[in-house]
Amino acid sequence: MKFGKYGVFTFTDIMNGAQLAELAGRVESLGYSTLWYPEAFNYETFALGGYLLSHSKQLVVASGIANIYARDPSASVMGHNSLNDLYDGRFVLGLGVSHAPLVSDLRGHEYGQPVKTMRNYLDAMDASWKALGRDNIAKQLVLAALGPNMSKLSAERTLGAFPYNITPPQATLSRESMGPNAAVICEQKVCLTTDPVAARAAARAALGPYLPLPNYYKNWYRLGFTEADHQNGGSDRLMDAMVLWGDAASIKARLNEYFTHGADQVVIQPIRPDGQPGPDWAALEALAP
Prior knowledge:
CATH class: Alpha Beta
Strand content: 15-25%
Number of domains: 1
CATH architecture: Alpha-Beta Barrel
Shape: globular
Helix content: 40-55%
Oligomer: single chain
Largest sheet: 10 strands, parallel
CATH topology: TIM Barrel
């Protein structure tokens, strides 16, 4: 699997069919290699993946990230196989353990130990591939991984890791845990504006749902932030790191820092300066490969 240098991530739950078709087509036409999409509160991951694949020709489409508590391992195997069989191997299944409130409160499951739960899930997927007689196919998986243990597992069992809500030094931390061969795929939010007030307001709107989640703020501590940075709506320092803002040239320069730290792909999430939902096409056009 060739992920390419730049991908795109955007929230798809708010988009209708026509907007999703436009998203796949425009991202591909701008030269981005991979379109990553979440599984949150609306679209089911394989149904949406198939729709996006059907409205593109060469674009790699990747779930970023499918919740392992949403389906059993065999269902994930069959979804992965189906989309790759039907769309020329252009689908990557990104898997994650999600967050305790989304698993326990929303889905009614018991939230298990993250690394152990993911390892058991991957073991069961391998057993399903073997039972289906498809053990030798290319298994195009990545894991949502922030800490060293999940990052190591991603390198041992999948194509690599997809860390989210991070800074460029995360690529170095991931690489130290993963070794030289697995892919480090780094998401980064951007806001194409030179107005710091607008940029930080948009950043706080985008980051607000993540601030209470331990998976993220504990990783921010590893990256050099403190408890004060994620309290009271988040510090300016945290906002400026999580959402890169400025003109296109300055944003591109900061995105390139990921490659200096060892990333294989940077996934751009374009936040609109007005704080409204949906991708900022001006940013995607200005930053296009």
